[in-house]
Design a protein that fits this description.
The chain is of the alpha+beta class. The protein has one domain (44-223): Roll (Pili subunits), CATH 3.10.610. It contains 2 helices and 12 strands; from the N terminus they run αββββββββββαββ. Strands 3-5-6-7-8 form a 5-stranded antiparallel sheet, covered by helices on one side. Strands 4, 9, 10, 11 and 12 form a 5-stranded antiparallel sheet that branches. A two-stranded antiparallel ribbon has the order 1-2. A hairpin with a 5-residue loop joins β9 (167-175) and β10.
Amino acid sequence: MSYRSGRGFTLIELIVALFIAAIMFAFGYRALSQAINSRQEVDQQAVRLQALQTTMRILEQDFELAEPRPVRNTIGDGYQPAFSAPATTGFTGSVSTQLSGTSLKGQSPPIVTFTRVGWSNPVGIQRSEMQRVMYTIEDGSLTRSYYPVLDATEGVVPVKRALIDHIKSFTLRFMDAGHNWQTSWPPLTLGGVPQLTQLRYRPIAVEIRMEIEGWGVLIRHIEVAG
């Protein structure tokens, strides 16, 4: 009676099998890593898209509800226009912030400051329904600020909110009653208009031109109510 001994794997066969398994694992890991990275990129783009949509909605609501209500200056000896966008030196364009690199650093002067109506008050706080709003560029982000009181003093600190980052340029133009575009507001052509009228003068439309890194230039026209 003969017995047939069982034959196992040789060392070479084990090494080859391990090598093949390692190659398959490497391909699988690479595919999984690419899938994870793609998902992260999609999630980041979705977050940025949501931020852009929120930004445009806030801009539209603010400009549409601009109110012809001047406010006292911070020291209380005069008034500021209801809608103000002064020509800003040191930037390309009058009411704009431009940069030569990939992002704007530091804080820009106020690009536009104005009074808007329709400030929601769901809890019934004792305050005005009007709000003084200001837009700036801070560390590459479009930032919206507002004051908790309408006629603010020097001691009142504005409440800030960064809307969207990676801003490469942000430019505004304003349409006057003659349907002419102005790069600052109030227009310089109001020299003979009474002071009170100048303080209450608003544009009839606003053009927003915003360049965002990776997305190019976005242009939006907003009609001012009233």
